[in-house]
Fold this sequence. Notes:
Elements: H1 2-25, H2 46-50, H3 58-65, H4 69-72, H5 92-104, H6 112-117, H7 121-132, H8 156-166, H9 177-180, H10 200-212, H11 221-230, H12 235-247, H13 254-266, H14 277-296, H15 298-305, H16 307-310, H17 312-319
One heme C binds at residues 163, 173-174, 176, 178-180, 192-193, 195, 203, 206-207, 222-223, 225-226, 229, 241.
Amino acid sequence: MRHARAFAIAGLAVLTAAAVAYAQSTTAPLEEEAPVEAAPLVTQSVSEILADTTWGDPENGAALAATCAACHGMDGKSTVRDIYPSMGGQSERYMAHQLALFKTGERQSPIMEPFAQMLSGQEMRDVGAYYAQQETDTGLADDAEVTEGPYAGMKFYEIGQQLYRGGDPERGIPACMACHGPTGAGNPGPAYPQLSGQPSWYAAQRLQEYRTGDTRREDPALFNIMADIAADLTDEEIQALASYMEGLHPRPDAATRAAMAEVAAAQPATPAPAPAPAADGEAADATEEAGTAGDDAGATADGAAEPAAEAAEPAEAVEQQ
Ligand code: HEC
Ligand code: HEC
């Protein structure tokens, strides 16, 4: 495949060169239909772009991220959540791969293409490594009650939660968490992207793209994994999944929660209602952080809370594939 493409491109270049030579060596006007197609800007395939690269250097990535910060934030959090996706905590390999796809035009985005054009394969991995180290963005899930349709009576995010955790065996839809993890953190090994905290419009747009099943990718294997999964999702389910994932965020696991409770219990009981902030330490901070979104929308906390333990198995099973 790749060779075929390389030859095709080489062929184009020869044709172009021949046409130019022809133009210079004759006074006869060139025919209208002369095959003088402009050679594509990027003549490398995705795997050629990423060949011979090594694990990204986050320091160099930080310098490169200055260009991306206007939209994706220096901290990886979208500067305008309604327009730009977030990058913090996303996997190095997944980001580099998507950047290479933007560069070849196999993934189309008029906004991203010029930024991807500027990067070499190694720089894609460097900037990926930098953003992988940043904190994951957080959002809120929609817990409005659904009044009509097959899911009437459920909260909106619960439609997404149900599919995310359990899939729909009848329609052959697998649980999303099998690959993307119970908290949406993804799996950097096989480059399953992180999904948590991403603005819901963006996740929904991606699921719609997958659902069409159309791709320009030369190697559509990864696209097709998602295309098969999204094929039967309804609009409502896509929006609900996107909303659920937006509110999904990591929580301390059961062992950490127990340890935190122990620390809290060991504190001398204070009669004053407001405990001194200095004495709380890191454990208390963590609790607070995990609770933030949950307090605003029951959606978020519930989403990520329990499945941590029960999901360990599906995640492992996938890794072995
Ligand atoms: C002008 C705003 C803007 C700038 C600057 C920008 N991006 Fe983007 N980026 C976007 C938008 C919008 C998308 C969503 C594209 C789509 O799918 O439609 C995106 C998508 C991406 C994605 C795909 C994310 C995913 O989850 O699949 C990556 C990776 C990315 N950008 C990396 C970068 C890097 C690295 C830079 C800097 C070199 C950069 N971007 C600069 C706007 C921007
Ligand atoms: C078998 C593993 C697997 C399962 C199960 C799975 N995904 Fe994915 N998902 C992937 C892979 C691989 C990609 C990257 C595809 C690509 O390169 O475009 C992806 C990408 C995505 C993206 C795009 C992320 C981004 O940053 O642009 C979204 C959104 C997504 N998946 C949602 C879901 C949802 C919702 C479900 C459950 C209904 C699900 N996935 C189930 C493997 C999986």
